[in-house]
Specification:
single chain, alpha/beta, 13 strands, globular, binds nicotinamide-adenine-dinucleotide
Length: 328
């Protein structure tokens, strides 16, 4: 019997490289495409093609067959320090929109129409996320639109693009709105890292009784979803007959201060917080999981604590490795 085939665009990135591993384990023949190879482990893809999806001809060359499943995860993105400062707005919008336009056109020419698109919680209107205790991220609350970043606006445009291809060209598009995915092998330093990895790093580097810097007053709320749960939700959505958009996130909401306390507890350190000005994003955000529960008969259930434990252990190892290599 022929193997099922999958294409993972952005397969050198954090979520993409984990997804490649999972699909290979499931028995798929997998092609991964990215500007770069995965940073922290060898790719397990059967075929890894390095290249730039902003180039339409390159897109056509890698979408050279009809795939059973295509996952489009490639985007110009990063944590709050990258997305919310405004310094990268033009690149973020131009690069990610070009990728999505090219990919869909190449898929249409190849009649390869089952495609998953990773949108983001950043599409939700800022005015529904001002109360940290009570943010509204129900899927239908996306309109009238008012995302707080150009990253969010591009995601919203591209969501609509995937759904328009479904309406007009018979694509089986699946649109997920990811909420803060974290775990081992995610960026943990250098400016593009997200809060869980950044906090694990700061706590790991601090001495017991030491102080770490936190952007804002730390009372902003978020939820964080462990990578394995993200993959479970994404593959379930892909194989369902529901197009979305649907949230894939955790509904265990915490303040950033609580996240620091959790990481400190795991590290068994007493850590003080120094609150400094910095890019913040919305005041409150949490995944609303009613729709995913209803439509997929599944929703994420893993606790934040068990995810942070695994991530803390991995980040600590990276710090040690870096120290050892700079001492060598
Ligand atoms: P990531 O940055 O690790 O992965 C994205 C990958 O896309 C990178 O490896 C990058 O090299 C690649 N890429 C960028 N431009 C490219 C180009 N022109 N050609 C080829 N490859 C290119 O990010 P991630 O965390 O793995 O996120 C994957 C997707 O999920 C993204 O679309 C992101 O916007 C979305 N998302 C992620 C989160 C999260 O918390 N991680 C939350 C919401 C949405």
């Amino acid at each position: 019997m022929n193997k099922k085939t999958a294409l993972v665009l952005g397969g050198g990135g954090f979520i993409g490289s984990h997804l490649v591993k999972r699909l290979v384990t499931e028995g798929f023949w997998v092609r991964a495409v990215d500007l770069k190879y995965p940073e922290f482990s060898e790719t397990t893809a059967d075929d890894f093609v390095q290249g730039d999806l902003r180039d339409p001809l390159f897109c056509r060359s890698i979408i050279d067959q009809k795939f059973d499943e295509i996952y489009q995860l490639a985007a110009d993105m990063g944590g709050a320090g990258y997305i919310f400062t405004g310094d990268h707005d033009a690149d973020v919008m131009h690069n990610s929109a070009s990728i999505n336009l090219n990919v869909l056109d190449a898929c249409l020419r190849r009649n390869s129409k089952r495609i998953f698109y990773s949108s983001s919680a950043c599409i939700y209107p800022e005015h529904n996320q001002l109360d940290p205790e009570n943010p509204n991220c129900e899927e239908t609350s996306a309109y009238p639109a008012n995302p707080d970043s150009e990253y969010g606006w591009e995601k919203l445009f591209s969501e609509r693009l995937y759904l328009a291809y479904a309406r007009n060209y018979g694509f089986e598009s699946r649109v997920a709105r990811f909420h803060n995915i974290f775990g081992p092998e995610g960026t943990w330093c250098g400016g593009k890292e997200k809060a869980p990895a950044a906090i694990c790093r700061k706590v790991a580097e601090a001495i017991d009784g030491g102080t770490i810097e936190i952007w804002g007053d730390g009372e902003q709320t978020r939820s964080f979803l462990y990578i394995d749960e993200c993959l479970e939700g994404s593959t379930r959505l892909m194989r369902s007959n529901f197009a979305g958009p649907v949230n894939i996130g955790s509904d265990e909401m915490v303040t950033i201060n609580q996240l620091v306390d959790l990481a400190s507890r795991i590290a068994q350190k007493n850590i003080h917080k120094n609150h400094i000005p910095g890019p913040l994003g919305v005041r409150g955000r949490n995944s609303d999981n009613h729709m995913i529960g209803e439509r997929l008969n599944w929703s994420p259930s893993m606790s934040l604590e068990s995810g942070i434990k695994k991530t803390y252990a991995w980040v600590s190892k990276q710090i040690l490795k870096q120290k050892n290599s700079s001492n060598a």
